[in-house]
Amino acid sequence: MTLAEKVLDRMMSRDAFSKWMGLEIESVGAGTCKLKFVVKPEMLNGFDIIHGGVVFAASDSAFAFACNSHGRIAVALDVAITFTKSAKVGDALYVEATEQYLGNKTSLYEIKTLNEAGELVAVFKGTAYRTSRPVIEGIS
């Protein structure tokens, strides 16, 4: 099992929110994470399309898994999201975090959410602060 997989296992074991959202991990690696979820009725806004907060939350989870994958606790410093397309009940959405920069104290990630047709639903950019503390004691 890789360090990124060990970190993900630890994080997911304590992440009730990501589980509640139904996020399924497709893959994780150093600085990357791919996940999937299906839009449920309780994820809709008043216009019967996915609530922006749901897309943001899924992107934030992928961001967290990717930026902590190196074994050091990393926390968000700054995030922004741009929405490009809506989604409806039953749509599968794919969220992919990709590391753009890894420094000693900060790192930068781009997280894209795509629908089943490969169309862009949102782009999330996040900057993380990297602490010196390990995610899992004794492993770094």
Q: In summary, what is this structure?
A:
With 140 residues, this protein is α+β, with helices and mostly antiparallel strands.
The N- and C-terminal alpha carbons lie at a distance of 14 Å
Mean pLDDT rating: 97
Please name the fourth-level CATH homologous superfamily: Hotdog Thioesterase
What's the β-strand tally? Answer: 6
CATH topology: the name is: Thiol Ester Dehydrase, Chain A
> What count of structural domains?
1
Level-1 CATH class name = Alpha Beta
Provide an overview of this structure.
The chain is an alpha+beta fold and 140 residues long. It has one domain (3-134): Hotdog Thioesterase (Thiol Ester Dehydrase, Chain A). 24% of the residues lie in helices and 44% in strands. It has 3 helices and 6 strands. The chain has a 6-stranded antiparallel β-sheet. Strand 4 (92-102) and strand 5 (106-115) form a beta hairpin. The longest helix is centred in the middle third of the chain and has 16 residues, at 52-67. It is globular, with a radius of gyration of 15 Å. The protein starts with a helix and ends in a 6-residue tail after the last strand. The model has no long low-confidence stretch (mean pLDDT 97).
